Amino acid sequence: MVIDSALNATFLALADPTRRAILARLSHGEASVTELAEPFDMSQPAVSKHLKVLERAGLITVAADAQRRPRRLTPEPLRAAGAWIEQYRTIWEGNYKRLDALLAELQQPSKPSTAARRAGRASASPKRTPSRRRR
Questions:
Q1: Rounded to whole angstroms, how far apart are CA atoms 47 and 79?
Q2: Could you give the number of structural domains in the chain?
């Protein structure tokens, strides 16, 4: 399976809890680096490195607003990641439905499965032994 580099960058960015927290904050509106760094016990340059990763992934953009350079959330890469995950969710749900059906069939004592009936017939049939002729 081929996964494009933008999707790889998105998942790389989302792998870090600090970057996920920054995205959560930006989901409420734009913020400056200082505002984004406030809740974390790390230096502003460390937060800036996280912001660079988010920018490279296309998850945030930088706006020019006079002296301020606020960051804004860009939802498109998250939509692409969500669509990729959704493909697999559909597959997993189908697998779980088939498993549920199999378990329900196995829990019904009234009707044995075809394989069980065949196995039962094979073991119930008498074994033939070669007959001996008397002379």
A1: 24
A2: 1
